[in-house]
């Protein structure tokens, strides 16, 4: 049990102890309920070597991959960045009520699904399950974890559709669902985030369909839809009143006449359109943009590249493999 001691005594004590027996000074912090749950997690991970420090004779706050809150001494973070873990995520994980950060990464033998008990983690801000072999659908119950600021489920084997409910997470700043095997289209609700609009990464999936018109009203700062099977046009993002900043639409089947777009959001600074089926020619208004990244290679564009603005800042690879595009940096027309 914890004793009430003055700050000075604690400081002196911990200094003395840390010079002699470091584990003792911490041995009273660990909450026994948390410790019990961590042992269940260790077991569900197949008692791996990477968790060898998780033993009864040491304080769980000092265990590898574990962090305790400095005031409550409850487990606030569990962050495993790699390891030879074989098993699944146990339902017991929902019984770490103070958990704010859960990161499980580079664990290729971690399989199964995200347990529904995770919704009990009402303080969870960061959830990263990445480079694992978790599979099945991305559960819509994740939208119940209202505290989430970052949800990263990239590089897994998830299938099925994107749950529309994710747009109701009020604090979400980053949503990464890239590198899975997701199908279906982007939910209409993504034009309707109830909180702030997160940066969204959906690349390298099997998503298809046209983009919902509702996306046009969203102030995206970063939208990565690359390497999917989307089709249709991108006009919802372009126009004077639009505010998109950075977008990667590359390697899809977008098909539209570029000549018909002539007003671009001033905010636009990154636009990657390579490997689509875009035709027509490049409008002169593109010269007004301060583009940091720009690529329209591998499309079906024709005509002269407008001279000026940022458009000649790029080498020919930003423009090559089009039908009949010409002019600097490509050969003259
Ligand atoms: C995954 O499990 C297989 C089969 O048990 C084993 O051979 C392999 O070494 C494991 N790999 C990792 C990275 O855990
Ligand atoms: C992972 O652990 C399994 C079982 O404990 C073992 O057979 C395998 O060799 C380990 N793989 C690596 C890459 O350490
Ligand atoms: C995990 O994923 C890797 C690569 O995606 C794959 O080669 C491996 O067979 C998978 N392992 C299991 C246990 O599913
Ligand atoms: C989108 O892909 C699914 C399979 O993932 C398919 O059933 C559906 O027909 C496709 N939709 C369109 C419009 O191509
Ligand atoms: C968008 O939000 C409004 C108000 O919250 C709601 O009435 C509407 O159904 C939502 N639309 C979609 C497509 O989710
Ligand atoms: C998008 O940004 C513009 C300009 O900053 C602002 O006027 C507008 O209200 C924003 N829209 C939403 C839905 O937040
Ligand atoms: C866009 O996505 C493609 C494929 O995922 C990637 O190779 C490229 O670097 C990305 N472009 C930008 C500007 O991030
Ligand atoms: C842009 O916004 C202004 C003011 O809200 C509005 O009058 C105008 O019609 C809008 N233009 C377009 C192209 O949506
Ligand atoms: C694209 O649109 C422009 C302007 O509306 C038109 O002149 C041109 O013929 C169109 N190109 C194609 C290939 O349809
Ligand atoms: C444009 O994209 C193509 C295809 O991915 C790539 O080969 C090229 O290097 C890119 N060029 C620039 C300037 O980004």
Describe this protein's structure.
The protein is mainly β. It has a single domain, classed as Ribonuclease Inhibitor (Leucine-rich repeat, LRR (right-handed beta-alpha superhelix), Alpha-Beta Horseshoe), CATH 3.80.10.10. Helix content is 10%, strand content 21%. The chain has 3 helices and 20 strands. The N terminus is likely disordered. Bound molecules: 2-acetamido-2-deoxy-beta-D-glucopyranose (NAG) (10 copies). The site of one 2-acetamido-2-deoxy-beta-D-glucopyranose has 4 residues, from loops.
In terms of structural class, how would the helical and strand content be classed?
Answer: mainly beta
Q: Please give the share of residues in helix.
A: under 10%
CATH architecture designation: Alpha-Beta Horseshoe
SSE order in H/E notation?
HHHEEEEEEEEEEEEEEEEEEEE
Number of domains in the coordinates? 1
- How much beta, percentage-wise? 15-25%
Radius of gyration: 25 Å
Q: Which small compounds were modeled alongside the protein? A: 2-acetamido-2-deoxy-beta-D-glucopyranose
- Distance between the amino and carboxyl termini: 82 Å
Biggest sheet details: 11 strands, mixed
Strand order of the largest sheet: 1-2-3-4-6-8-10-12-14-16-18
Task: Return residue spans where pLDDT drops below 50 for at least 5 consecutive residues.
Answer: 1-5, 7-26
Overall outline: elongated
Brief digest:
With 333 residues, this protein is mainly β. It has helices at residues 7-20, 22-26, 32-44; strands at 66-68, 75-80, 101-107, 126-132, 135-137, 150-152, 157-160, 174-176, 181-182, 199-201, 208-209, 223-224, 229-232, 246-248, 253-254, 270-272, 279-280, 293-295, 300-304, 324-326.
